[in-house]
Amino acid sequence: MRTWASASMPLASAPAAQAVAAPAGSVQGLAVVVLALNEARRLPVCLRSARFAEQVLVIDAGSTDDTVAVARACGAQVEVHDDWQGFAEQRTRALAYCRDARYIFFLDADEEITPELQTEIAAVVASGEQAAWKVMWLQTAFGRPLHGMARNSGQPRLLHTACLQGFDGVVHERARLAPGTPVHRLWNKLPHHSYDNVHDGLKKLTQYAMLGASKRADWGQRGGVLRGLASATAFFLRLYVLQGGMLSGGPGFLYCYILAQECFFRYAALKYDRDLLHDRVKR
What we know:
By secondary structure, the protein is an alpha/beta fold.
């Protein structure tokens, strides 16, 4: 029986980066996959950073803006799947279009791959190792890098296709790995443009609070105002004080506060909107 690789699996040492140049389109056997919904404004920067890969694939969830046209103008292959069944299903669908790829890097529309990270990814592909790699975010918000706010982006982003069996999960979807798959870490960070403005931040707050509440409802957890306050307060103090959000002025405060509010409303919705929760919120 196939099993999940543990999310708590210790990170092994990543292979030493070789001096591998990564000019546009040169990394054969690598596909970069981007999930998109109404991301026409962000996609040019994102996709331009992925041009070093042999294949750049955008899976669109039914955008009503110019996302599809912009992605194609940037040279990406675009496949539309607007029968929304969740983030995990969208990522799993992408695998069918990457049959010639030996490695897949999953990139979000609000991220960009730096030249240094491109070189490191190229070195991994050249190594041929059958494994998975996590990456740390370099957080930016409201037009400013956030000092000391590097965070783990969650599940592995770079995966050898022989190790990847699919995805599962409502939000912060989890890669289903073959048993015993080594999980390493890429040493160069991935810039993550969290919020461009307050309006963008509030929209994401709503999406992730409701999705997080839905996931916890499936787990049988209980919500409430007091639990939400406790979660939000602890989260804010950890980000703003312990992880240095206070060093980034107003943008640092806004970033930490919005994420803390997401924690609060997640548990508020879990109690007061429990009958309305679902996992069909698109991103």
